[in-house]
């Protein structure tokens, strides 16, 4: 009888472990994103006007606080979830026109609201403090800078702007174990020397000019390696590593100097996705993988070498590459190409993409186009005419 009981106990225990393992796998690998996606917030233009309704619909498990005001006196909010010992601080839209990660944050909050079991596990292990839009004036104007035309990511040391001081105050009070610094990058970036767009890029910022490693920088690298392992399943070859030149006035570098593992996220281009809804999904998975790696204490499974094996970003892409335009411009040879880059312009509450002839700071050896068109092809020519590009080729 005793032996049978022990056997039964072992079987029950074993099946529980299998269930837990299965559940963890399921959480990370097979999320039904359509269930999580918050469709009321879409596109590139995102301000607190777009977020407020969603934020006020959150349950009491999410503590929403006004943490200060922007130059033009708009409230800046933070949302806190969980009460676990590992504190993660994240902020988005410190550059006002970089909204993709804000949308991913909204999806993360929705995930925590819908997936009660997973949310309990995360909330028991972590306290998340999220500042969804740090630069509300820039978000409204659709500018990188704040209302005083200052780049907040070059103000971490000098703290001349109210938004910079708010972030510093929250950082000091919250004393995070990890910081997620959330951004967008332009469509010009490719991975290494390949013709793959850098759909997501990461950086473990340096803490000194020599770009040495410190324990906190090492942890940032390992966490990026974890997120990269997840992303390679979804977008193989489309993850890049951002330039690690040191600047003490950049927020990531400043927090890394204080010993906090900080990760720069850069949402980039996915083919055809100028509204960055696909990239939003990928950033959501990255955030979840980053958090779950911290929750499950599995950061040591990932290495600095894995981080360093992510190729650095190149700047070889343009939005449109027009080839063989000798019919329109006699100065260009058959092999010449005209690079066109979209300028993002805020018009009636939406972002429109205005094509402009692109001038490279330094012309790369090879140029790639997210769309490549041949002027000798009738269909391509019609597309260029219909999209107001032919006039740029004269
Ligand atoms: Zn940015």
- The first-to-last residue Cα distance is 92 Å
The CATH architecture category of the largest domain equals 3-Layer(aba) Sandwich
Record field, number of beta strands: 14
Number of domains: 2
Can you tell me the residue ranges where pLDDT is under 50 for at least 5 consecutive residues? 5-26
CATH homologous superfamily title of the largest domain: Zn peptidases
CATH topology of the largest domain: Aminopeptidase
The oligomeric state of the chains shown is single chain
Strand order of the biggest β-sheet:
1-2-4-3-5-9-7-8
Bound molecules: zinc ion
Number of helices: 12
Question: Please, could you describe this protein's structure?
Answer:
- The protein has 394 residues and is α/β, with parallel strands linked by helices.
- The chain has two domains: 25-313, Zn peptidases (Aminopeptidase); 317-393, no CATH class.
- The protein contains twelve helices and 14 strands.
- An eight-stranded mixed beta sheet has the order 1-2-4-3-5-9-7-8, sandwiched between helices.
- Strand 7, helix 8 and strand 8 (239-241) form a beta-alpha-beta unit.
- Residues 5-26 have low confidence and may be disordered.
- The structure holds zinc ion.
- Residues 95, 98, 183 line the site of zinc ion (ZN).
């Amino acid at each position: 009888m005793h032996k049978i009981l022990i056997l039964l106990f072992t079987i029950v225990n074993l099946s529980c472990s299998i269930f837990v393992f299965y559940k963890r796998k399921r959480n990370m690998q097979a999320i039904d994103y359509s269930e999580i996606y918050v469709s009321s917030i879409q596109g590139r233009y995102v301000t607190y006007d777009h977020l407020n309704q969603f934020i006020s619909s959150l349950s009491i498990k999410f503590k929403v606080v006004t943490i200060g005001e922007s130059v033009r006196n708009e409230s800046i909010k933070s949302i806190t979830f969980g009460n676990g010992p590992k504190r993660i601080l994240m902020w988005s839209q410190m550059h006002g026109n970089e909204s993709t990660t804000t949308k991913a944050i909204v999806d993360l909050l929705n995930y925590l609201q819908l997936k009660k079991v997973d949310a309990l596990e995360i909330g028991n292990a972590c306290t998340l403090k999220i500042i969804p839009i740090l630069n509300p004036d820039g978000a409204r104007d659709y500018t990188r800078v704040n209302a005083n035309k200052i780049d907040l990511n070059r103000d971490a040391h000098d703290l001349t702007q109210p938004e910079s001081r708010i972030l510093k105050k929250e950082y000091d009070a919250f004393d995070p174990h990890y910081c997620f610094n959330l951004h967008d990058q332009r469509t010009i970036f490719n991975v290494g020397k390949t013709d793959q767009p850098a759909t997501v890029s990461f950086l473990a910022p340096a803490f000194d000019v020599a770009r040495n490693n410190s324990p906190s920088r090492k942890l940032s690298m390992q966490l990026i390696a974890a997120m990269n392992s997840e992303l390679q399943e979804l977008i193989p070859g489309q993850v890049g590593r951002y330039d690690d030149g040191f600047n003490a006035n950049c927020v990531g570098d400043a927090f890394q100097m204080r010993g906090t593992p900080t990760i720069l996220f850069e949402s980039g281009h996915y083919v055809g996705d100028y509204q960055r809804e696909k990239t939003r999904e990928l950033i959501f998975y990255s955030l979840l993988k980053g958090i779950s790696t911290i929750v499950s204490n599995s950061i040591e499974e990932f290495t600095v070498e894995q981080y360093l094996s992510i190729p650095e970003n190149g700047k070889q892409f343009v939005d449109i590459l027009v080839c063989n335009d000798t019919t329109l411009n006699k100065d260009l040879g058959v092999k010449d190409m005209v690079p066109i880059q979209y300028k993002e312009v805020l018009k009636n509450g939406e972002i429109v993409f205005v094509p402009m002839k692109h001038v490279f700071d330094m012309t790369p050896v090879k140029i790639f186009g997210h769309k490549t068109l041949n002027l000798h092809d009738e269909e391509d020519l019609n597309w260029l005419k219909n999209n107001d590009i032919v006039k740029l080729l004269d």
